[in-house]
Design the sequence.
């Protein structure tokens, strides 16, 4: 094999000085860590964008045409559209969901934490009819009866720490009303909200009445969740039927389409996606520079040895192979500690921030290939010194 020869000259060049080997491996590991970190945050944007949608108990979604992202509060649509949807063949049920992204200036933690939070920390409020199976979150389904008590809510355990304790029976203040924690659930934050609250549609109407028509608050929904019988009807067929029946003030999406729309919003409309890809590219460039410095220094220190090999008849092809094998060994040795450090970072971010940082198989393979490419490019650049090594000059 290319890496394993009878005389492993490349391996011996790397390992003859253990202290220097550790420094070199850590240098490559740092570049690997940077790439994993940027790619992890990029994937977290994608996963967080669809996390709430994944928990809805439906295959089709109805949203206002004016609402181009769930995180952006727009003009809601009338629940008459849901009544129309229920008449479409194949539709089993259609549920109304109410969303509110209220700034944390409306959130007070009485006695359990800070009494007033900065305006830049939004809370996502999720409300629905408790008699309808809207969410597939087990903790929510088990505690729905508790939410039927007015002004009782469920708090997300994965909300950020500055929202205070999430224990049951804690008194809070939201939108200038006292509320009470009935229990907790687990969902997680995203780039639009630092915390989540689930409450009944009645409590929602008291806390966030529609300014133009308070009496019609519950007749104006933010999301319509449509449940169909997948065994007897095709999802896309029902979508087409809904689009034909419903008025043009709403859009109809499958679950996959709505998740893709949310991801496109965060990656293309906001600078978040571009920032992470720029960070990924910068990590690659840093890695190329680090690897080049390592390999170039090693070649310079052993230039007389390379010249000797040339003098006794070894061709440039063999010497080039030594340098490239050294680059590949460096890539593999640096990748493993970089992977371990990245795994620790992912766990830490998930625990502290609540973002879904998952070390995916495809991402791991991608970073490994990029690391190999990074080191090979560095080795190719460093080949010039080996190719120009002249025995006559070295031993003159």
Sequence:
């Amino acid at each position: 094999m290319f890496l394993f020869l009878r005389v492993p000259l490349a391996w011996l060049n790397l390992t003859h000085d253990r202290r220097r080997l550790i420094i070199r491996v850590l240098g490559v590991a740092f570049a690997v860590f940077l790439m994993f970190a940027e790619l992890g945050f990029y994937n977290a944007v994608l996963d967080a964008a669809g996390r709430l949608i994944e928990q809805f108990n439906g295959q089709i979604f109805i949203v206002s045409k004016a609402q181009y992202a769930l995180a952006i509060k727009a003009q809601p649509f009338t629940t008459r559209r849901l009544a129309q949807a229920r008449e479409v063949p194949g539709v089993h049920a259609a549920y109304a969901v109410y969303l509110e992204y209220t700034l944390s200036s409306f959130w007070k933690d009485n006695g359990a934490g800070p009494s007033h939070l900065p305006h830049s920390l939004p809370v996502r409020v999720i409300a629905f009819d408790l008699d309808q199976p809207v969410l597939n979150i087990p903790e929510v389904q088990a505690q729905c009866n508790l939410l039927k008590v007015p002004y009782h809510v469920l708090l997300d355990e994965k909300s950020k720490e500055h929202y205070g304790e999430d224990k049951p029976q804690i008194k809070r203040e939201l939108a200038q009303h006292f509320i009470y924690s009935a229990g907790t659930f687990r969902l997680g934050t995203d780039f639009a909200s630092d915390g989540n609250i689930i409450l009944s549609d009645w409590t929602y109407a008291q806390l966030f009445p529609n300014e133009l028509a308070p009496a019609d608050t519950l007749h104006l929904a933010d999301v319509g969740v449509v449940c169909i019988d997948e065994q007897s009807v095709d999802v896309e067929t029902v979508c087409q039927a809904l689009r034909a029946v419903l008025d043009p003030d709403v859009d109809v999406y499958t679950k996959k389409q709505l998740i893709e729309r949310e991801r496109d919003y965060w990656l293309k409309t906001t600078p978040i996606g571009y920032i992470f890809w720029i960070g990924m590219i910068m990590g690659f460039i840093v890695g190329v520079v680090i690897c080049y410095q390592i390999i170039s220094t090693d070649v310079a220190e052993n230039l007389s040895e390379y010249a000797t090999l040339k003098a006794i008849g070894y061709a440039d092809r063999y010497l080039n192979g030594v340098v490239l094998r050294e680059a590949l060994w460096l890539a593999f040795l640096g990748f493993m500690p970089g992977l371990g450090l990245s795994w620790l970072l992912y766990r830490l971010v998930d625990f502290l921030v609540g973002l879904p940082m998952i070390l995916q198989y495809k991402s791991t393979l991608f970073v490994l290939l990029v690391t190999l490419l990074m080191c090979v490019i560095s080795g190719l650049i460093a080949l010039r010194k080996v190719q120009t090594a002249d025995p006559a000059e070295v031993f003159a």
